[in-house]
Amino acid sequence: QLVESGGGLAQPGGSLRLSCAVSGYTLDYNGIAWFRQAPGKDREGVSCLSITENSTYYADSVKGRFTISRGNTKTTVFLQMNDLKPEDPGVYYCATGHTHIVPSHPFVPLIYDDWGQGTQVTVSS
User: Fold this and answer.
1) Could you tell me if residue 94 is left (phi over 0), alpha (psi between -120 and 50 degrees) or otherwise beta?
2) Which of 6, 10, 33, 51 lies at a 20 to 30 A Cα distance from 75?
3) pLDDT, tens only, 38-87
4) Beta partners for 45?
């Protein structure tokens, strides 16, 4: 089970920290990612943490602004979002995958088996 939290309203240039609580079968993941979906747009990958590769990946649009991290255990993953921009709003989902994360394509939705319900992020002045 995946449960996201931490969404809300932020001003442009502001920050939010999203959390994803992982439990049950989904704890045995090799990769965990954040996706987002804005109204009328396709779901897009934002950031990914690969356990097997010990690597992180970011969409170009968020590089240098967003940071994915994990707590001391695999049960909580965070997405620190700084310098939020008008193009960042949407529903943010975390997802876990049990297959190998291909570094050149970390955001293929099909490789992620479990998804949370999402948390809404709004950026407005």
Assistant:
1) beta
2) 10
3) 999 999 999 999 988 889 999 999 999 999 999 887 799 999 999 999 99
4) 35
